[in-house]
């Protein structure tokens, strides 16, 4: 990657699906070579899949990497899937398994979104964007309505009480490691 940067073929280097340890190794190796190294990490991160909070997010914060979450709405499951379960990708087997596994939380999630007057998708993206390490989620709008909904997330500011309610619905791992599991 260092050679590609020197040759002008790439400007910056990012990683994808690295563990916190791998991020640290890559950043320390780059530092030892006086090279900028990684600037971003692309990983699975959404309200249902929050294990990144244990080590990847702390590593990104420590080394100044931006986090680019993929599948920010869990195959559309966090986008109001209970109301739309019969349409589009939510009818796919992977989405149906996620819906079945998370149904009680999804019921509370969709009720909270309704209470706040927001679409669940926009609210889920706003939650990601409220984390300062998140640069931008990778969204896959298939319609202008999907794009407008994703852009709405930029306007939503979540207060502490709303974030607390979200954490009650979708509890994360309890913070960074090792404190999340050792104390």
Relevant terms:
183 residues, mainly alpha, three-stranded parallel beta sheet, 3 strands, 45% helix, globular
Strand content: 5-15%
The largest β sheet comes out as:
3 strands, parallel
Low-confidence sequence ranges: none
Large-scale geometry: globular
H/E series, N to C?
HEHEHEHHHHH
Strand line-up in the sheet with most strands = 1-2-3
Secondary structure tally: strands:
3
Q: Roughly what is the average pLDDT, rounded to an integer?
A: 93
Q: From the alpha-carbon coordinates, what is the Rg to the nearest angstrom?
A: 18 Å
* Oligomer type: single chain
List the helices and strands and how they pair.
Blueprint: H1 2-6, E1 13-16, H2 20-32, E2 38-44, H3 56-63, E3 66-70, H4 93-116, H5 120-129, H6 144-152, H7 160-169, H8 179-182
Parallel strand pairs: 1-2, 2-3
Tell me what you see in this structure:
There is one protein chain. By secondary structure, this protein is mainly alpha-helical. The chain has helices spanning about 1-5, 20-30, 55-65, 95-115, 120-130, 145-150, 160-170, 180, and strands at about 15, 40-45, 65-70. The chain has two domains: about 1-70; about 75-130 and about 140-170, no CATH class. The protein contains eight helices and three strands. The protein has a three-stranded parallel β-sheet with strand order 1-2-3, with helices on one face. The termini are far apart. The model has no long low-confidence stretch (mean pLDDT about 95).
